[in-house]
Amino acid sequence: MRVLGLDYGTKTVGVAISDPLGITAQAVETIVRKAENKLRQTLARIESLAKENSVEKIVLGFPKHMNNDIGERAKRTLEFKEMLERRTGLEVILWDERLTTVEAERTLIESSIRREERKKYIDKIAAVFILQGYLDSIYHDNERKGEKHGED
Question: CA-CA distance, 22 to 118, in Å (whole number)?
Fold first, then answer.
């Protein structure tokens, strides 16, 4: 079961995908758009990636505030979720993305990626952390239930 992970931002969407067994997340690309409300090409690209990779569901980072409140970015993310569901016909799961960008930034620094280069990678690395968090939760839920991961 392949899953697509998305880090939705004001001008970019970081994209990650799981391996076929749904165990690990890999960075795919960063989709860049000219303006925040220009989403048609972004949605078309996500739909294309989903079809090309036989994706069964999408995990979308949900930017809650640290106190668990939902702000303007989270409201825009909910709207984007609805657009994704209509466009792809896939289930879209919201996943708490608090601190994923901080974690991605730290990872890039530890990897000695120069500051100027980090912007190219930050969104897709954040998408990897979002998707990996989801995949790990599924694995641990299955372990608690006594199921083996990757089997029906």
Answer: 27
Q: What is the pLDDT of residues 27-53, one digit of tens each?
A: 999 999 988 778 999 999 999 999 999
Confidence of residue 151 (pLDDT cuts 50, 70, 90): very low
The pTM of this model reads 0.81
Which residue type is seen at 54?
S
According to the CATH classification, is domain 2-145 in 3.90.230.10? no
Give yes or no for a contact between 7 and 14, defined as CB atoms under 8 angstroms apart. Answer: yes
Triad 25, 77, 81: Cα angle to 5°: 75
Break the chain into its structural domains and give their ranges: 2-145
What is the number of residues in the chain? 152
How far, in Å, CA of 100 to CA of 126, rounded? 5
Longest dimension (CA), the chain: 47
